[in-house]
Amino acid sequence: MAPQIPKTQKAAVVQKTGGKVQIKDDIPVKQPEDLAPGECLLKMHCTGVCHTDLHAALGDWPIPPQVPLIGGHEGVGEVVAIGKDTVHSPVKIGDRVGVKWIAYSCLNCEQCRKGFEQNCYNVKLSGYTVDGTFSQYLVSYVNCVTPIPDGIPSEDAASILCAGLTVYRALKYSETVPYDWIVLPGAGGGLGHLAVQYAKYMGRRVIAIDGGEEKRKLCESLGADAWIDYTTCKDIVAEVKRITEGKGAHAAVVTTASSSGYTQAVDYLRDGGKLMAVGLPAKATLDASIFFTVFKSIKIIGSYVGNREDANEAIKIAAAGKVKVFYKCDKLSALESVYDLLGQGKIAGRIVLQME
Ligand SMILES: [Zn+2]
Ligand SMILES: [Zn+2]
């Protein structure tokens, strides 16, 4: 029997950017008969909270989000309906699937055909240009959701869909090989702690940079080969060079929001090093030495989330138990207080909200 779909649902809504998050329980649910071909309706289990959601709520990015806004883009739910006349659906009713930042890509434009679905000319962004995962029900797209393998709890999978995917792709495209040194500034944060694990799974050596005892313990427990505390280290560049026997690191995956994290990387990378830029600070600019970027043959590469196959790879590695999200659970109604803590940089790992 088809599950009962309610007419209204609970969701976290931002009426205008910069305003408060309100929990509302009268948000309409798109009914199965109203779904367009290719659309599916998901009953959400849980959703992670990402720094991007805070940027969306504040409206401080160069591209404005839609308002009113239902944020969220790393959610896991169950397919409860599929639009009539959908052909070749890779998912069926009852499947557990994930929703990513890239809610929809057309799979037909030049960028999509080249595998850069995240740069699709017809892209829809979850919790930014279309409603996101901070709701009990969500309309998504059968060709774009990520199937979640059995054996990984929904809460464990949620943050793989954004944070995990993002760092996995950056590492995958860093042109490094096993035993190469990778520097991870912000290694104890939401993206960073996953980057440490994916890097170790891929056989790289990790230099973790972050601040404080809690983050040091987290990074070391995840297998980081070296630790630098930026709050006490006087010269990070010199320290990276010391650890790498004077040569510098092969790559850096920079997830931090500060521009100094990027500038330093050019200095501590060895010749031919790759600077994978992953963080999305609202205003910071990249102030790197052109002389040394050229002289050292440094590659600076912007790496923006990932395509559907990157997501499948990232989630399979996590489902195999090789990468674990360090998270705490809370309820959807706690979103406002989670944003406060996120804004103050006080969250080690990730927060996953369960639907009520
Ligand atoms: Zn995100
Ligand atoms: Zn496209």
TrEMBL record:
Report the Pfam families cross-referenced here.
Answer: ADH_N (PF08240), ADH_zinc_N (PF00107)
Q: Which cofactor does it need?
A: Zn(2+)
NAD as UniProt keyword: yes
Q: Name one GO cellular component term.
A: cytoplasm
Q: Where would one find coiled-coil regions in this protein?
A: none
All copies of the Cyclic nucleotide-binding domain together span 302-356
Q: CDD domains annotated for this entry?
A: CAD3
Which GO terms label this protein's molecular function in UniProt?
alcohol dehydrogenase (NAD+) activity; metal ion binding
This protein's record includes keyword Zinc = yes
**InterPro entries cross-referenced by the UniProt entry:** ADH-like_C, ADH-like_N, cNMP-bd_dom, ER, GroES-like_sf, NAD(P)-bd_dom_sf
EC number per UniProt: 1.1.1.1
Q: Member of which family?
A: Belongs to the zinc-containing alcohol dehydrogenase family.
The cross-references to PANTHER family, in alphabetical order and at most eight, read:
ALCOHOL DEHYDROGENASE 1-RELATED
**What's this protein's name?**
alcohol dehydrogenase
Organism listed in the record: Coprinopsis cinerea (strain Okayama-7 / 130 / ATCC MYA-4618 / FGSC 9003) (Inky cap fungus)
